[in-house]
TrEMBL record:
Residue ranges of domain XPG-I in the record: 108-179
InterPro entries hit by this protein: PIN-like_dom_sf (IPR029060), XPG-I_dom (IPR006086), XPG/Rad2 (IPR006084)
Superkingdom to which the source organism belongs: Eukaryota
GO molecular function: 5'-flap endonuclease activity
Pfam families, alphabetized: XPG_I
This protein's name: XPG-I domain-containing protein
Amino acid sequence: MKSLMSNARDVCLEVEGSVKHHATFARYVQNMLHKLPESSSILLVLDGAQWPLKAATHTRRRNSREAALARVMEANAANDQTTADKFFREAVTVPSSFTSWILTHFQKNNRVDVVVAAFEADAQLACLEANGQIDIVLSAAEDSDFIVYGMRRVMYNLKQDGSFHEVAIFDDVLGKIVKVARRPSPVARRPSALDRP
């Protein structure tokens, strides 16, 4: 998404199906992957179709993007590039042609397998982790959905030197919740499952 945001103007103005900026996005993904240890096996999971149960959300987002593009046109007419750039960032979305392009691009890379999720990549990643098919999730964004889906280990903020911030959900998040729940209460109560070590 960072790559999209930095090229928001070009992406929004790009004709559907054009691959002009796909190389920029692929380079961003490739740079992230190169930061991982050579011994890593990488599974790149892309969003698939829109989830029907989120149709209202998708409609709201599409309307918001269209409104932002209208504001871009107003700002451009007023020769206000700062405002136009702001609304370009609100209007940007991943071009539909990008998924097929990235599949073709990464087929040549023996270290990377690519999966297109049935719907959202987050849910697919959670399923893969729950089944023991992946060890850790690398997030390009600060996505809290991973916590909601109960993924155990998520890597955020991958730096150029390969360092990153890892959140171990059960240790870092749920462990703290359990510790808070275990605090002794001043009111007498019956023992619960939380009292067990």
